[in-house]
Amino acid sequence: MFRCLACLLSMCLGLLPAGCARAEGAGAYPSRPVTLVVPWPAGGATDISMRILAELAGRELGQPIVVENRPGAGGTLVGGLLAAARPDGYTIGQLPLTVYRFPHQQKTAWQPLRDIQPVLMISGYTFGIVVPADSPWRSLRDLIAWGRAHPGQLTVGSTGIGTTAHLAMEDVLGRSGVRYLHVPYHGTADQMLAVANGSLMAGVNSTGFAPFVEAGKLRLLAVFSAQRSARWPEVPTVAELGFADAVHNSPYGIGVPRGTDAAIVRRLHDAFRAAMQQPRHLAELARYDQQLTYLGTAQYEAFLRQAWETERTFAERAGTARAKEQL
């Protein structure tokens, strides 16, 4: 009885002991709203789909899931926030692949394998190269030819330094010997508007560009997927245009602080797995040519451990890797 009273008093004071947290995790979780960190600006494609998913998963949990946007640093701010949060299930985050890329390139106070517990994988993106609808470039070859003829004058946007969009762009233009000006943005919406209004000559992004392409404001030159998109079957893949292995996607899922009670992880997994299959969420993914790529907790963790090694190899090849002993 006294232990329960102590726990209740500590909760009121914001000083819940670890033992009490475990006790709640085994039973009453969640007893209050859950915060979902989305590391992209409000109003973008990922933000909208994650808000829908949060609403649906909140219904499964019986408590609302409140989205907190923390854009910047290529979507990696979520890594530090999860590492610093209490492992009680009340702070969760969307995990872009950049969380497992940046520590190889820049010093961080957190390490994802050590500090983040994966819950489940949800989906991935189709990345593509877009230009304004009135651009004289009708193909990727046109863009590359112009870039070669005008060194340093081609402006290309991405969702941030070190993001998958940036690396995909560098993969193609770097191999082509094109010197260009990279313009990083915090998210999709601002970048696509800049391309559509001609402030940028080209952009590389996930399929947040879809509404702009379908509205006739952007022209899609090529996609970075392994096969042509069923939505735009006339658009070639970058690989088929001569850039072997230039296949880039960025699977994402949900993560929590490492040390979160296994029962809470299972509860979140089950809620999000049910929510991600709801027609409303599937319809939103379809708007951006996305499909479900579900992996359970153990499989998702194995995938991310392999991704950690793959990103290390990529950083070493690009000459941006930090020393291993610094990780």
TrEMBL record:
Keyword match Signal: yes
**Gene3D superfamilies for this protein:** Bordetella uptake gene, domain 1 (3.40.190.150), Periplasmic binding protein-like II (3.40.190.10)
Q: What is the lineage of its organism?
A: Bacteria, Pseudomonadati, Pseudomonadota, Betaproteobacteria, Burkholderiales
**Record field: transmembrane:** none
InterPro entries hit by this protein: BUG (IPR005064), Bug_dom1 (IPR042100)
Give the protein family.
Belongs to the UPF0065 (bug) family.
Full protein name: Tripartite-type tricarboxylate transporter receptor subunit TctC
Q: Which residues form the signal peptide?
A: 1-23
Keywords assigned by UniProt, alphabetized = Receptor, Signal
Q: Which domain of life is it from?
A: Bacteria
Q: To which species is this protein native?
A: Cupriavidus alkaliphilus
